[in-house]
């Protein structure tokens, strides 16, 4: 295993000021993979200052969009060349099955290509003429990079979540300090290496690994940051929002979810079961948009549950590198214990555990858990209302459309939702009434770089991906000119 005991700051690999490191652990066997550089506030300060110099004095913000696009495409190509290696590293660091990791790394490269295309077109769209009522003036609206961005990303999709923030920020002309999760820091450091090899100017991207308190908090509180982008839990998002408020920083947050999936009784059972499983068992259920609250119309409820249990019990669980494995371990001991506690709480609250919630017989070590299905879950129970972030699905019956919508929308979250029905008119009608930022019809979880991503209510602020993601890192400036040869004549006649 190569060394990961350095930070990437100002285009160079440097040791942390205090020389600290921390362990990153393989969740499949609980062994230490390697030790990683532990940044502290002094290192974060160096990184922010490097990004500030790169923005204020360097070429990156002044480059034509097409020039930045060339480097973004080189980053995408660098990721593709190393796709297998990077995917295997994510399996070791995160635990997800290899096919999922390969999918993620492919999406990561595609994200850089997409924002390269937007950077290419940015110059032509940078300035927009404004029609003014007073013809003595002409005015334009001009898009400019926001400045120095700080990004704090989660552990569930390590490299992909980095791309969701790094690619649009760089396309816009911003400079960035990236802080990955201490649970899965390795591919963020590899991204820094790939960007360096692609010719990204010094200071444009800086990567500081470390613990949340020691590195994440100083980044969110640093006065040199113009923009903060965070993906993670609501409690951490709340603290980041409070820190941003002190400096009136621009902020985007993608937080938790407890997404509903409404299934009407005209749905095909096998198709419904397939999408339920993909909606909650993909990535071990460690997905902010996971459709973990399933509402099934009463006539379909019992047969669907029977089929869902059968299919769930047939899932292959094990090390993500093993062929045929579709469910890997949870990311850490802390997350494993949290999910087990949630399952115990659900049973205490009166929900019926139909299957799962135990260690698989073939997995003596590692944070493995058989996927759990709860039926007849009380609407006021903790497991129905709160995010678990694991392979745990809660199922309830409903009687009619109004009942389903009431239950689906009764949540402090609003990241995603899904609806399934052969009646597309009904499905479209329900989709428009669901209070969520992302709604899927006859599917769950497909995510496209071209489409906006973000939530309502406590699921966050702002949108990532698509053109919306680029706009996250752009300011809009008005430039107005007085064109008349006649004196203004207000004070001097």
What key phrases describe this protein's structure?
alpha/beta, six-stranded mixed sheet, 22 strands, 493 residues, globular
Structure characterization notes:
Helix content is 40%, strand content 21%. It has 493 residues and is of the alpha/beta class. It has 2 domains: 269 residues, Aldehyde Dehydrogenase, Chain A, domain 1; 182 residues, 3-Layer(aba) Sandwich (Aldehyde Dehydrogenase, Chain A, domain 2), CATH 3.40.309.10. The protein has a 7-stranded mixed beta sheet with strand order 14-15-16-13-12-18-19, sandwiched between helices. A 6-stranded mixed beta sheet has the order 9-8-7-10-11-21, sandwiched between helices. The longest helix has 28 residues. The chain starts with 6 loop residues before the first strand and ends in an 11-residue tail after the last strand. The model has no long low-confidence stretch (mean pLDDT 97).
Quick take:
The protein has 493 residues and is α/β, with parallel strands linked by helices.
Number of strands: 22
> What is the second-level CATH architecture of the largest domain?
3-Layer(aba) Sandwich
SS content category? alpha/beta
Shape: globular
* Strand order across the largest sheet: 14-15-16-13-12-18-19
What is the CATH C level class of the largest domain, in words? Answer: Alpha Beta
Please bin the fraction of helical residues: 40-55%
Which fold name is given in CATH as the topology of the largest domain?
Answer: Aldehyde Dehydrogenase, Chain A, domain 1
Mean pLDDT: 97
How many domains in all? 2
- The CATH homologous superfamily name of the largest domain equals Aldehyde Dehydrogenase, Chain A, domain 1
Give the amount of beta strand, in percent.
Answer: 15-25%
Q: Taking Cα atoms only, what radius of gyration do you get, to the nearest Å?
A: 24 Å
* Biggest beta sheet summary: 7 strands, mixed
Enumerate how many helices there are, as a single number: 15
Low-confidence stretches: none
N-end to C-end Cα span: 79 Å
Characterize the quaternary organization of these chains.
single chain
């Amino acid at each position: 295993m190569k060394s990961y005991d350095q930070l990437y700051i100002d285009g160079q690999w440097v040791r942390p000021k205090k020389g600290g490191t921390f362990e990153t652990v393989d969740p499949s066997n609980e062994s230490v993979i390697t030790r990683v550089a532990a940044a502290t506030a002094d290192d974060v300060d160096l990184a922010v200052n490097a990004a500030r110099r790169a923005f204020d004095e360097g070429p990156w913000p002044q480059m034509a969009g097409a020039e930045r696009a060339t480097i973004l495409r080189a980053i995408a190509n660098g990721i593709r060349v190393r796709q297998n290696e990077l995917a295997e590293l994510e399996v070791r660091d995160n635990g997800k099955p290899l096919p999922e990791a390969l999918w993620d790394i492919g999406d990561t490269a595609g994200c850089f290509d997409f924002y390269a295309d937007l950077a290419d077109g940015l110059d032509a769209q940078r300035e927009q003429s404004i029609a003014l009522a007073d013809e003595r003036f002409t005015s334009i609206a001009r898009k400019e990079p926001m400045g120095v961005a700080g990004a704090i990303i989660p552990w569930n999709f390590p490299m992909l979540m980095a791309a969701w923030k790094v690619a649009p920020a760089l396309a816009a002309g911003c400079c960035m300090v990236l802080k990955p999760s201490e649970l899965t820091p390795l591919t963020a450091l590899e991204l820094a290496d790939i960007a360096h090899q692609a010719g990204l100017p010094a200071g444009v991207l800086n990567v500081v690994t470390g613990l949340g308190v020691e590195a994440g908090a100083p980044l969110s509180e640093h006065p040199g940051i113009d923009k903060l982008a965070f993906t993670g839990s609501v409690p951490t998002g709340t603290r980041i929002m409070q820190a941003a408020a002190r400096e009136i920083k621009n902020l985007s947050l993608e937080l938790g979810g407890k997404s509903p999936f409404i299934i009407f009784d005209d749905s095909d059972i096998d198709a419904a079961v397939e999408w339920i499983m993909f909606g909650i068992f993909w990535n071990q259920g460690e997905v902010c948009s996971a459709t973990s609250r399933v509402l099934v119309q009463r006539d379909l409820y019992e047969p669907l549950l029977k089929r869902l249990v059968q299919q769930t019990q047939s899932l292959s669980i094990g090390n993500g590198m093993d062929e045929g494995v579709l469910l890997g371990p949870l990311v850490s001991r802390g997350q494993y214990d949290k999910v087990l506690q949630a399952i115990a709480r659900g049973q205490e609250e009166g929900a019926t555990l139909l299957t799962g919630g135990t260690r698989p017989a073939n997995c003596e070590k590692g944070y493995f858990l058989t996927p759990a299905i709860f039926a007849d879950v009380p609407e006021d129970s903790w497991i129905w209302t709160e995010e678990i972030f694991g392979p745990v699905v809660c199922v309830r019956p409903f009687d009619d459309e109004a009942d389903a919508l009431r239950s689906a929308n009764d949540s402090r979250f609003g990241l995603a939702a899904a609806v399934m029905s052969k009646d597309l008119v009904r499905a479209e009608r329900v989709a428009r009434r669901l209070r969520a930022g992302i709604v899927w019809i006859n599917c769950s979880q497909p995510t496209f770089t071209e489409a906006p991503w973000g939530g309502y209510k406590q699921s966050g602020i702002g949108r990532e991906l698509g053109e919306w993601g680029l706009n996250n890192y752009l300011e809009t400036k008005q430039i107005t000119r007085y064109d008349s040869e006649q004196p203004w004549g207000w004070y001097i006649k």
